[in-house]
Design goal:
The complex is a heterodimer.
Chain A (H helix, E strand, L loop, with lengths): L1 E5 L4 H9 L3 E3 L1 H9 L14 H5 L10 H16 L2 E6 L11 H13 L4 E5 L4 H22 L1
Parallel strand pairs in A: 1-2, 1-3, 3-4
Chain B lengths: L1 E7 L8 H10 L2 E4 L5 H11 L6 H14 L7 E7 L3 H17 L4 E6 L5 H16 L1 H4 L7 E7 L3 E8 L2 E9 L3 H13 L11 E6 L2 H8 L3 E2 L2 H12 L6 E7 L4 E7 L2 E8 L7 H11 L3 H10 L12 H13 L4 H19 L10 E4 L6 H10 L5 E2 L7 H10 L5 H4 L1
Parallel strand pairs in B: 1-2, 1-3, 3-4, 5-8, 8-9, 10-13, 13-14
Antiparallel strand pairs in B: 5-6, 6-7, 10-11, 11-12
The chains are: A alpha/beta, B alpha/beta.
Chain lengths: 148, 413
């Protein structure tokens, strides 16, 4: 199943999903597609003026361009998601796209989709971490069962 | 090469990073990103003390701290956040103050949209580059020798002849052919001075036509308006130290520049609507059958609330004034309403975007319209608005001041 993650660039969440045989919907893959497009010349991520305009599908014109630019990449992933894992209060190193307003909007859209969603809080101890990984694995395995 | 440290949030996702780098490169500068380690971000953020939700903005704070604490090296700072982001706007200004309070680095701030292009950033990058590379020129507080300043504006060309910190003569001509207009302005400024063109020790040029005129006259200084007008305004208003805001409501465009010790650090330029320009007041005067110089005193006698003006548009606005007059409205109320309308639009379109600092120094031809100055002060909640003597010659005075001390042109020619 296609599983959206939040933060959308969390390598750890993407890896856990892949290990359980699902497809993580992470923005790294989308950015890679842009960066590899030889026809676009807008470093560092090849996002152009057109992307924040595409983001208008998710946020109105009065919303800052940075939010709309982020949503132009993350929004279609939310639309394509069949399940989601949301991690709250994660530190920078876990994954981060820099903008609190985009975070609020993304989480809201994920919840609104009505797809199976696992919401977690970032662990602070070893025990919590093990419990969290188990929860994620159980959630992903159940998706498999439902799917199959 | 001048190193400009970029402290920003949202430039990559707005697709404008390339434009920023292009603008800097055009003026011989390079954009650098202050380095910060992950642990340092939290440490710097806590030390700074501004609670913010966005991690991108926390990173901005850490980068600013890294500059202030000497962990990163830069010659100038460019601070930018997304237009309409409240958190970004708050932190942008606080970081600007923090850097200015703790370093001697020049700072320019900007709020961008996905439409921001390199040419909109040119004047800012040129100003930053100038401040770094020509610091000694901007440090000048007194005019010395015999110098000429020319401001080639979009509607008028101004020239000022100065000698040892005094204005000897001025010239004011409508801009037609830029070189011809500059020549006429110069002739007016030099007439009765007893000096000939060959006697000049330096020529400084600013404004839209600066490059053409500068090359033609072999000027010693060809400089954008941001640095020149800031310097000219604080010099004429005798506010060379501390903070100030320079407001220039022009015939075609408006500029608002915030300055710190005479050095510009933020700037907005508007020019979309003629209803917010000096042109609107010129047409109002014509409709009232008076010279534009009489509009200010007339407006001071009126009450803008009694003059019907429902539109900001120059066409519909004038129509409103005509209707108001036809219905028996007083001319002074109509004049006051016109001044208030221009001030209100400048406030809504530009002053709101910028961190306005007292005193406000109003310059340019429209600063001579007292009714407009009073309306600006009123709209800013009674803020102190200074109109220095010779405020209409701001760019020319700034150029004559800055070029003095750049060496004697007779020795070079």
């Amino acid at each position: 199943m296609k599983v959206a993650i939040f933060p959308p660039n969390s390598l750890i969440l993407a890896d856990l999903i892949e290990r359980r045989g699902h497809e993580p919907l992470a923005i790294m893959k989308e950015i890679r597609k842009k960066v590899k497009d030889a026809e676009i010349d807008s470093p560092p991520m090849n996002i152009t003026e057109e992307d924040p305009i595409k983001g208008l599908k998710y946020a109105a014109i009065e919303v800052p361009s940075g939010v709309r630019g982020r949503m132009s990449i993350f929004g279609p992933l939310i639309d394509a998601a069949e399940a989601a894992i949301i991690m709250d209060e994660a530190p920078f190193g876990f994954g981060c796209i820099g903008c609190a307003r985009t975070n609020e909007l993304s989480v809201y859209y994920l919840r609104k989709r009505g797809i199976p969603t696992l919401e977690l809080t970032y662990p602070t101890t070893r025990e919590e971490t093990m419990e969290l990984v188990n929860k994620i694995n159980t959630f992903l395995d159940q998706l498999e069962e439902k799917n199959g | 090469m001048v190193k400009i440290a970029q402290i920003s949030c949202g430039t990559e996702y707005s697709g404008i990073q390339k434009e920023i780098e292009k603008a800097a490169a055009t003026f011989g500068a390079e954009i650098v990103i202050p380095e910060t380690e992950i642990d340092y971000i939290d440490e710097a953020y806590k030390k700074f003390g501004f609670n913010c939700a966005s991690s991108g903005i926390r990173l901005m704070i850490a980068r600013a701290m890294s500059i202030v604490e000497g962990k990163s090296d830069a010659d100038a700072i460019f601070i930018a956040t997304c237009f309409r982001c409240a958190e970004g706007a708050l932190v942008r200004n606080e970081i600007r103050r923090f850097i200015q309070d703790n370093t001697r680095l020049p700072v320019v701030t900007y709020s961008f949209t996905e439409r921001t292009k390199a040419d909109e950033l040119f004047i800012r990058m040129e100003a930053l580059s100038t401040i770094v590379a020509r610091k000694n020129i901007l440090a000048r507080e007194k005019q010395e020798g015999l110098t000429l300043g020319i401001d080639s504006g979009s509607t008028t060309t101004k020239a000022v002849l100065m000698e040892n910190n005094k204005i000897l003569g001025t010239g004011w001509v409508p801009t037609t052919d830029v070189i011809k207009s500059a020549q006429e302005g110069t002739d007016q400024a030099m007439a009765d001075s007893g000096y000939k063109f060959e006697d000049l020790e330096g020529i400084g040029v600013t404004g839209y036509g600066r490059i053409t005129i500068g090359k033609h006259l072999k000027a010693e200084l060809i400089q954008e308006e941001l640095s020149v007008n800031s310097k000219g305004a604080v010099y004429l208003a005798n506010r060379q130290k501390g903070e100030a805001t320079v407001l220039d409501i022009g015939g075609m465009d408006n500029k608002v520049i915030t300055v710190n010790d005479g050095i510009p650090d933020n700037f907005t330029m508007g020019g979309i609507c003629a209803g917010a320009s000096g042109r609107f007041l010129e047409i109002t005067s014509r409709r009232l059958g008076i010279d534009v110089s009489e509009l200010g005193p007339l407006a001071l006698k009126g009450d803008y609330k009694k003059g019907l003006l429902n539109s900001y548009c120059i066409v519909f606005g004038i129509q409103d004034l005509v209707t108001s007059l036809a219905a028996g409205g007083k001319r002074e109320d109509v004049a006051a309403a016109a001044c208030h309308s221009v001030a209100e639009q400048v406030y809504e379109q530009q002053l709101q975007e910028i961190d306005v600092r007292e005193p406000v120094i109003q310059v340019g031809g429209t600063s001579l319209i007292e009714g407009l100055v009073a309306a600006v002060s009123d709209i800013l909640g009674g803020m102190d608005v200074i109109v220095p003597e010779n405020s209409q010659y701001i760019g020319a005075v700034g150029s004559a001041l800055l070029v003095s001390g750049m060496g004697n042109r007779q020795e070079k020619l």
